[in-house]
Amino acid sequence: MKFAVLDFETTGNQSSDEIIQVGLAIIDHDLSITRIYHSFVNPGMPIPPFISQLTGIHDEDVANAPGLDEVMMEMVPLLDDVVLVGHHVAFDFNFLQNALDRAGYLPFRGRILDTIDFLKILFPSLTSYQLGNVTSQFGILHERPHQADSDALATAYVFLKCLEEIDDLPLLTLQRLSDLFAGEDSDLGWFFDTVRQQKEHEPNQDIVDQRYAYFRQFALQVEDWTDIQPPREEEERNPLAGVSFHQFLEDVQNRLREHLPNYEQRESQNIMFGEVTKAFAEDKHLLIEAGTGTGKSLGYLLPSIYHSVKNDEKVMISTHTINLQEQLRERDIPLLKEVVPFPFQAAVFKGRQHYLCLRKFELKINRKDFGPSREELLTAAQMIIWLAQTETGDDEELNLGRNGGDFWETVESDSDSCLGRACPWFRKCYYHRAKHEAGIADVVITNHSKLFTDVKANHQLLPSYDRLVVDEAHHLEDVAGKHLGMQMSYFTVAHTLMRLYKDSKTGQLPNLRMQLQASANEKSVEWTSVIDSIYPSLIEVKEHWDRLSELLYTLLPERSDAATGEAGQYVLRLLPNKKPKDWDQLAPIENQIYVSIGDVVRKGEKLLAEMKEEQDDYSSDSLITDISGLLKDLANERDNLRSFMKLDDEETVYWLEANSQYRSKSMQLYAVPIDVSKQLKEYFFDKRKSVILTSATLSVDKSFQYMIEQLGLQESADTNRLMTTQLPSPFRYREQALLVIPRDFPSVKGSVGDDHFVSTLVKSLSDLAVATRGRMLVLFTSYRMLRQVYDPLKEALAAKDITVIGQGVDSGSRSKLTRRFQGESASVLLGTSSFWEGVDIPGDALTCLAIVRLPFQPPNHPLVEAKSERLQQQKKNPFMKLSVPQAIIRFKQGFGRLVRTAQDRGIVVVYDTRVIETYYGKHFLYSLPGPKMEHMALGQMVPRVTEWLDSDAKQN
After folding, report:
1. Is residue 261 classed as helix, strand or coil in its secondary structure?
2. Is beta strand 827-831 parallel, antiparallel or unpaired with respect to 803-806?
3. Which whole-number Å values give the CA distances from 195 to 199, 202, 211, in the listed order?
4. Could you write out the three-class secondary structure of 50-63?
5. What is the pLDDT of residues 4-63, one digit of tens each?
6. In what order do the strands lie in the sheet with 19-27?
7. CB neighbour burial string for 717-751, b if at least 16 within 10 angstroms, e if fewer
8. Contact predicate 682/702, CB 8 Å
9. Which residues sit in the known binding site for ATP?
């Protein structure tokens, strides 16, 4: 095969736009790049400024360039008998066909391949498929992104890398891919089929590739998990017998110095080692605030490993985010394995839905049970490759793309459809591997969600433990509420129904029916008619559920500021024993749903039980298990809906949420305990020997009292079972951070700013951005205000070559937007809720942090409202006991985005003058770790910021 890798730069994205540059790289049969053709093209019109900004191509570059006809005359011979390749090839192909037509040539009729497809399939864990990101990941030189010759050459190298990867695949995987695309008349299918045939004719195909385990016609990276041994099986005596923690630590720190030339002991980390060790030794709980730069992960990991190995007592570590779990797995644990002087095992154990169920995946692939979109085929191909790479089967390793989540839902592991030891895949199962590893590990790293799922499952999910470390502990109360309460959405029920029966061809029941029709069992006719009798009930449930969701939506107040500041978000709190006036009309509909689901579940379970007894066919056994799991889900949803509609528990807050865009389809039902402190005390602080709670933000006004009350630790504090420590910061905040408050800045009420407020804010942000050369993060408390600022700020900064990136306006997840922000030389990133914490932008990429409003939760959010009422009943001030402490913790999280290393230096601007004008404002400032603070008139702010940054430049 001979390939031509094509790239065009154009005046825009429409087919009517003009080509301004052509790049073509020819890859010959021997996979060498034999020719690169490139030329500017005179488009006969001015190049739009944004295109010049993107590509660096200006009018003067193309003024004397040849016209399109001349360029096509040189290009057409190069396209003879080639396979056309491109990155997002459809774009370039359309322009090519158009250009051929205009220049009087026949259209291109050859095969077309897209490097994006290859990257998705062959490199399932790549975080981004953007050409610039891919080339930097692969170490490919890409000098001038968005110039056609450079892009074509870079794409050619990426394509060669993909061909290398294909060449390295085991034959079985290639056969699987070829079979997967066999029914699809596509160039990608043709390509995999051709490569498969070539590989089958190569000599030595009967020699098994030793890098893989082969099972049920899949090449896997994993052997049986039943062979995994405990970490110190061979050793006779305990490696820590007679060794004090101090001796152990000294040994580890010496090894760290050898391993990391820059390693230096930190006073705060040493204190943390001591405190955690003491809490473990004395069976006490510990609240320990460890700011950025403390090295808190090692601060609790080393004492946990020491305690666990020395006393043969498992330590459970829980994080709030999967991100932190991954960081511990990828960065901290491998480092410790190098420096701890004996073998130990740290296992990561997540919620079950994060692991692939191989049985479900095999069935889906063998049945080709895919939706109409091509996306599903690509996801299936991606996962076939991934099986030969993954050792964990964890979805976090996969870049699943936009619709991949729906595909994953159909193949994720879940307890209701697990065949356990009866499953042919049992010894290879990723979930059971993770569970086994957690069972034999010294330290298990899980997350808050899994902790509470375990509590609800009577501690059947996690291995038993007496010592718990909770990182990111300021989230514990919130997660507890969500898990100990109930949350269901419109799609919770709709998805279960669709998976059972979407139409007569799609869904697990139609799949079972088709299997029965093909089987020779004498009862199959009888069973088929039972399935047919279930369909109408499912359709009825769906219709009633749609109707109920619509009626619930009509109850919502038409005020868009009623929620957490998200676009057109509506919220309605429902008071226990005070039902809204139209509530009684809803009861009959809910009752019909209850009865119909009961009918479906009864018929379904009876049918499945009969079939299980009579059939011994694995594939129908597998389907029966999946359907049985879906029926259990449906029964749970029925019961949850009933308990919600009763509204009868005074200790629970009930509310509805939806947004104006998706209306009743976005309906969410919540029932959350008002106060989880009693449950936290009962499940954790009373039952465990010691619980260590750590975070960068646990204290308010240098005191832990707020957290002690929220988390149910008061009794432990009173009985001297609780230790508290606030670690000193390793940073020199007075030199590294300047906090500025413009004291004459206009104030604002609610989540929307008036014209004067918005125009003053945009002008100030734009002046600041110029002074700090972009590199600015702006934190909002309301998405609506972010939208108000985005367009005018973008316009104001366009002339200064500073990019504005807005969360929710520009597409991409939080981490994608953050990466884009770090990649641009000058940019301003506008973020709301999720950007206040967990975003790590060290170094020069972030110089200025602007906080537009103090992050108070909306007082009319149902949970805040209910907690406030409870405090009032206790004759306490809800504003000072709840709203202010919550906002301070959030404010400290936001402030923590700025200084991430000992070298970082930057400015924080707080536009909310309440911090200096109100009696509670001082609590916000006093809770910070000691930056230099100044307030001044708005007009003096930019000169002061410039002067402070210049003094930094002079010192360096």
Report:
1. coil
2. parallel
3. 6, 11, 21
4. HHHHHHCCCHHHHC
5. 999 999 998 887 889 999 999 999 999 999 999 999 999 889 888 878 877 888 889 888
6. 33-40, 19-27, 3-10, 83-86, 112-114
7. beeebbbbbbbebbbebeebbbbbbbeebbebeeb
8. no
9. 290-297
